[in-house]
Fold:
Amino acid sequence: MYWQKEQECLSRPELAKLQLARLRTTLKRVATNVPFYRNRFQELHLDPEKLTSLEMLGDYPFTLKQDLRDNYPYGLFAVPLRDVVRVHSSSGTTGVATVVGYSRGDIETWSDLVARVLCGAGVTSDDVIQIAFGYGLFTGGFGLHYGAERLGASVIPISAGNTKRQIQIMQDFKSTALVCTPSYALKMADVMMDMGINPNGLSLRYGLFGAEPWSEAMRREINERLGIRATDNYGLSEVMGPGVAGECEECQGLHINEDHFYVEVLNPDTLEPVLPGEVGELVLTTLTKEAFPVIRYRTRDLTRLIPEPCPCGRTLVRMSRVLGRTDDMLIIKGVNVFPTQIEAVLFAIEGTEPHYRLIVDRENNEDRLTVQVEVIESMLFDEMKKQRALVETIKKRLASELGIGVEVKLVEERSLERFNGKGARVIDNRRL
Amino acid sequence: MLVEQIAVFLENKSGRLAEITAVLAENDINIRALSVADTADFGILRLIVDKVERAKTVLKEHGFTVGKTSVIAVEVADRTGGLAHVLKCIKEAEINVEYMYAFVNKTGENAVLIFRFEKMEEAIEALRREGFTILSKEQIYAL
Structure:
């Protein structure tokens, strides 16, 4: 099943031609309308008019998350605000949020691309789609919503949270497709058991999951416990939101909507392209976005391309599920957590020093973050009351900074490993 | 009139207390009194020793986090009502006790009470007024 068969099954040479034309247009547009890009292109003497091959994009500079923050809120918009019909924002947990805008045309494209993902997963206009992603500044809820309506399915915009009610509605409204994070799907399965509801008695057949890392093992568990077919989809607000890539019914990788996004996979250290099929950082350039184009956006997500043709007939290249992050960002309960945030909080509390370690566990399908902090002399009290007050202070400040609850555990000085790389600060016990 | 006490942070894992006492023994440091305050995750060991600076140094060398605080040592006759009498005096002076522990000295005649008060100076005054014996550093270390 295809939503836009002609585009999804375009021959590779035709696709390349289309991409080149769209890329040149995008580069010209940002050079004209966005001072940030214009200045950088000028510094490097890059003239979009002279772009004659897709490979020449390699000469262009990358765009980083920090560039988006530096231009908060509207600095990278390529159209006047009056042409923007929607604004979304990423969770600004590291201080400054990033803001993205959509023109009317962008919303049209976005709806179609999400409809492609839904259609690819097997969903049709006969389905009842329960969207349990948060509706709001996060792109997940509205992104899926517009795509599902475009497809012509019946949409239940239930948003996130209140699991029992989700299940009640799923049962009463006879939802056939569920959209949420994979861990939330497992949580639902747990709650169904508690409620004495047999998932096989429900109408649910499809699950479209994204917004956090997961694994084949998790997919199997979801499929078995909910009696559905779970598919993966990928997107990020900086590039568009959901709809960048999605799995077809083969469940062997996610087709990237290459007619709208130009994809590169680079070695994150050398920033040179990896060999076909090798793991590297996903770098995306939008080819059709009007309000918020991005050029060579470094996603920090690690993946590999699957160059072999897919039995489904789509010619769009597939990427593997996201295998990890190039930075040390953790996604806990769907919230982005950076160790540097924790460091900053510890620094700010008088007497504390940031020798810490993060331990992430997943129990009963809920993520739990424990922060171990080494006790130094200035943090040691002879009075238990004060010692415990310190733990509470650290806990509260971390919770308000991160937006999620954390456990804090004091440990003896020098008991945590010293490290050179960042990664050693984190022990992720979640079996994804 | 204040006595120095050292505090050591302990994670709740086996053998930590044994390790501390071994380190002190190896360095010929005598423990006069000790108490442990604990939670599920960690504990704070409080020690009165005969060589405070030496104890602090060697424990630090062995990787322990060590702090130093002042406490008050009060000597009372080892008989019924000894502690009650002291606490009554403190209560009347409206002073809170943060923590306390006690031991009986070698002769067995007197008990030594170690106190950490919310208001140390005021407590000393109140105890003096009531005629309690407050032990000096030297007296405690020599016990």
